[in-house]
Structures are given as C-alpha cells and as structure tokens.
Amino acid sequence: MEEFLTAHFWLAVGQIIMIDILLGGDNAVVIALACRRLPPAQRTKGIIWGTVGAILLRVILIAFALALLQIPFLKLVGALLLIWIGVKLIAPEDDDDHSNIESSDKLWAAVKTVIVADLVMSVDNVIAIAGAAQGAGEQHQLTLVIFGLLVSIPIIVWGSTLVLKLMDRFPIIILLGGMLLGWIAGTMAHSDPAVAAYLPQDRSWHYAMGVGGALLVLAIGKWIQRRRGPPPEATA
C-alpha cells in the first residue's frame, strides 16, 4: 500500500493522464465517427462498448510493452519513438487520419470499428504510457496503468471537446506535452539494460537525461516549425 502513497506513483499517474489527453483526443473523434449512423437508442451503447473494448485491448498491449521493455536496447528504440511522437505533437503534419473511418448502422460493427481504429492509433499511446509507468517502481506498474487509463476515460470521451478548446486557446499545453514525452524518452533510455552498466544510475542522472530528452524534442520541433514557415492563415 505504501507504493500508492509515494510521489513517484502519483507523478506517473499524472503523466499517464496527460499522455492520454494529448494522444487520446483523437479517440473521441473515432468513436463519434464510427457510431454516427447508429440509431439514437444504440449510439450510447456503441460508445460505451467501443470504449470498453478499446481500453481492455490497450491494457493488454501495455502489459506486453512493460515486459518487452526489459529486453536490452528496446527501451532505446522506445525512447527514439517517443522523441519522434513528441516532435510530431509540437510540429504536426497536415493530414487527416479520420477520413478512412467507416461508420455503420449495426451496433457490433460500429464497436468493432472503434476497437480496430483505436488499435491502429494506439501505438504511440502504449509506448508513452509504458514508459511513464516505469518511473513508479516495478511492483505496481500494471495497476498504475489501469488506474491512469480509468481516470482518463471520462476525460477523453466526455471532456475531449473542452480539452481541444483549451489546447487551441493555450498552445503551450501541446508544447509541454511534447516535452513530457521527451522527458519520458530520456528517462527510459537511461534505464535501458544495455546502457545501465555504463551510466551512473543515481537520480541526478535520471533527471538530467529527462531534461535532455525534453529539450531535444523542443529543439527539433521548433526547428521543423521554422523550416515549414508560418501556416497559410497566418500569412493571409
């Protein structure tokens, strides 16, 4: 029980909720698109069962990810992926992944669409959450993941509109989210079994690697933004 009262545990919970809000905002859009042709009486059922199925699938994927991250060099690969995801968050490309989401007027067909679409879109989410859970100690990692996901479900499903408006109004939220992913990438790389023997494993190095990852994501993201120039509406 003491593990649940530590600062590391609640810091990791906060990171997981933040990751789910930032990387899971599209899930609410996918759910809405997949269920839009259902009769009104079945729409709520489609949303609930689709969300439950997607979350259960994600917990299973994260359980595998937590086990796989113990293999040498995989944390380094995960760290590189997180840096790339963080950069994409700060400097997103102009594409629409939702155009291929098909709606259905049958309840279980819509639920299946939600689960499959969430599976395809959840790779970044799974890696980021598994990385965040590593910081809370090994004993309760999966419990932490499930708790963080449960807390974030209502935020994603019912609060996504508010969250998206806040992100539009305060772009620094996106910036800080990208840097958070860089932080997790740095701390993940620091604890990789392949390099742990060559790096001091004290807290100061752990934090230094996290800060380095956050600053790297910020620097690359800002560099890409400058290369692309201002968006068309800004120059109109």
Task: Describe it.
It is a multi-pass membrane protein. Belongs to the TerC family. It is found in: Membrane. Keywords: Membrane, Transmembrane, Transmembrane helix. This protein is mainly alpha-helical and 236 residues long. The protein has one domain (2-225). The protein contains nine helices and no strands. It has helices at residues 7-35, 40-68, 74-90, 107-121, 123-133, 141-169, 172-190, 203-228, 232-235. The longest helix has 29 residues, at 7-35. The chain starts with 6 loop residues before the first helix and ends with a helix.
Proportion of β residues? under 5%
Structural class: mainly alpha
* Biggest sheet layout: none
Shape: globular
Low-confidence segments, given as residue ranges, are none
> Helix amount, in percent?
over 70%
- Round the mean pLDDT to the nearest integer and report it: 75
> How many distinct helices?
9
Count the E strands. 0
As a whole number of angstroms, the C-alpha radius of gyration is: 19 Å
What is the distance, rounded to the nearest whole angstrom, between the alpha carbons of the first and last residues? 58 Å
Task: Tell me the series of helices and strands, N- to C-terminal.
Answer: HHHHHHHHH
What's the number of structural domains? Answer: 1
